[in-house]
Amino acid sequence: MVTDPIADFLTRIRNGQMAQHRIVEIPASNLKKNMTEILYKKGYILKYKFEDDNKQGIIKIALKYDPITKEPAMRGLDRISRPGLRRYAKPSEIRRVKNGLGIAIVSTSKGVMTDKEAKANNVGGEVLCQVY
């Protein structure tokens, strides 16, 4: 049993990139599916696919690399809020990531969204992670 599924999600992507894998498989949950869709919309992953295995399901993520330098599209994935120390922020307290070049994924009462969407909708929530 994984005690922190979001950290496991980020670690599997990070390890896949370090090993130059094309596809990473991750056990699915609704939160992880929403995070995957955000990463796809913001251009950090190439594509994704949700598969049903008669259990909880699997998310297959095709990682994105620069065609010339072979560098991954995501330079960093940092877990902000964790089970031992939850980090919540009001809309005015949500900070920009890498001076606006990255995104923060926030779990709000209106669903999972990026930091910019949360500020635009004037909702705060738990800051799950930063991607840059």
Please tell me about this protein's structure:
With 132 residues, this protein is α+β, with helices and mostly antiparallel strands. The chain is 24% helix and 30% strand. It has three helices and eight strands, in the order αβαββββββαβ. The chain is globular and about 40 Å long. It starts with a helix and ends with a strand. The mean pLDDT is 96.
What is the H/E order?
A: HEHEEEEEEHE
Fraction in helix: 10-25%
Shape: globular
Number of strands: 8
| Number of helical segments with 4 or more residues | 3
* Major sheet description: 5 strands, antiparallel
Oligomer state of the chains in this structure: single chain
> What is the radius of gyration?
15 Å
Content-based structural category: alpha+beta
Low-confidence stretches: none
Averaged pLDDT: 96
Ends distance:
29 Å
Q: Strands, helices and their partners?
A:
Elements: H1 5-18, E1 23-27, H2 30-41, E2 45-51, E3 58-63, E4 77-79, E5 88-89, E6 103-108, E7 111-114, H3 115-120, E8 125-131
Antiparallel strand pairs: 1-3, 2-3, 4-8, 5-8, 6-7, 6-8
